[in-house]
Every structure is written in structure tokens, then in C-alpha cells.
Design goal:
The protein is an alpha+beta fold. Helix content is 31%, strand content 33%. Strand 7 and strand 8 form a beta hairpin.
């Protein structure tokens, strides 16, 4: 665990996030509710050229002392020239990319889970005799296992995404539910 910062927290910049339930957007006019059914702040966004005309909806608003930050949502269709399909198994991910079959090894991830499964079993046996120590160690090793597994998966998926980007391929995953 990290150390607590000295002193109390300070507000360095006054800002408020406005949830999408507190504003509406119709015909280029953004209407923000100040007091329900009484006071509103209306901003005409149709005159601003930097806002795209073909967006789907307004995402969220951040109001500061000097500015109103508007985020917009726009759905984008994938523009891949080729497609790659993936099949995820217990010990590997099999990919069909650009006419070639490639396997990504997941045995290291499986190994991480097995190693920590054995460690956690040993710690759980301590539970009867030293419950506080056991709980502390369970937390520690569970967190460590999660961290190592997430790190491995992040590195693997980043390398796959990088390879797909280089070959201008989109990804298709198996859908067993539907």
C-alpha cells in the first residue's frame, strides 16, 4: 500500500461532470438543467464548426469556470480490408490471419493459475490456526495472481492487435452463445 499524502486534499480546479440525465440535445441546442423544471442553461451548438454534423449523441459534459467541454459519440464501421478469425482454448489461441494459421501459447497463463492455486490451498489450510495471517496472505497472493494474469493477457492482446494493425485486418471471435 502507498503512503497517504501530507495534509488534506485541495480543489485545484472547479469542475463538474454533468450526467446525461441532466441535459438534452435537440436541433443543435444543448439544454442543461440547473433547477429541475425551473431554470435551464441553453447553448446553441449549431454555429460551431468544430462539432461534427453526423454524430450520434452527446456523450457527457464537463463544466468548468471558463469553459464547457462537450464530448460526442459517433458509431464507426470497421474499415478492415481482410479479416482474422480467432478460437480461444484453455492452453492456446488459434488464429487464422491473412491465410495463415498462427497459435498463441497460453500455457504460461495456465501455469500462473496453477501455481497460485497450490499456494492458495496451502494458505487456506492455515485458516483454522491463524485466520488473520491467512486472510492477509490470501489477499496478497490473490492480488498478485490477478496482476500477473492481467499483465500477461495485456501483453498478448497488444501484440495481436499490433500484428492485425500492420496487416490491416479486423478480428472475428467465435460466438458460442448465439
Amino acid at each position: 500500500m502507498g503512503r497517504r499524502a501530507e495534509g488534506k486534499p485541495e480543489i485545484t480546479k472547479r469542475a463538474v461532470y454533468i450526467k446525461n440525465t441532466l441535459f438534452s440535445f435537440r436541433n443543435g441546442i444543448l439544454r442543461i438543467s440547473i433547477e429541475p423544471n425551473k431554470r435551464y442553461l441553453e447553448v446553441d451548438l449549431s454555429g460551431y464548426s468544430w462539432i461534427p454534423k453526423d454524430f450520434d449523441s452527446v456523450g457527457g459534459l464537463i463544466l468548468t469556470e471558463k469553459e464547457l467541454i462537450v464530448t460526442v459519440k459517433k458509431s464507426v464501421e470497421p474499415k478492415a480490408e481482410k479479416w482474422a478469425s480467432f478460437d480461444v482454448n484453455l492452453t492456446n489461441i488459434t488464429a487464422f490471419i491473412d491465410g495463415k494459421i498462427k497459435r498463441y501459447d497460453l500455457r504460461e497463463l495456465y501455469h500462473i493459475h496453477r501455481v497460485y492455486e497450490v499456494k492458495l490451498q496451502r494458505i487456506q489450510k492455515l485458516m483454522r490456526f491463524k485466520p488473520n495471517t491467512s486472510n492477509r496472505l490470501l489477499e496478497k497472493y490473490s492480488r498478485r495472481e490477478k496482476s500477473r494474469a492481467e499483465d500477461f493477457m495485456h501483453k498478448l492482446t497488444a501484440s495481436i492487435a499490433r500484428e492485425l494493425k500492420e496487416k490491416n485486418c479486423g478480428a472475428i471471435l467465435e460466438n458460442l452463445k448465439g
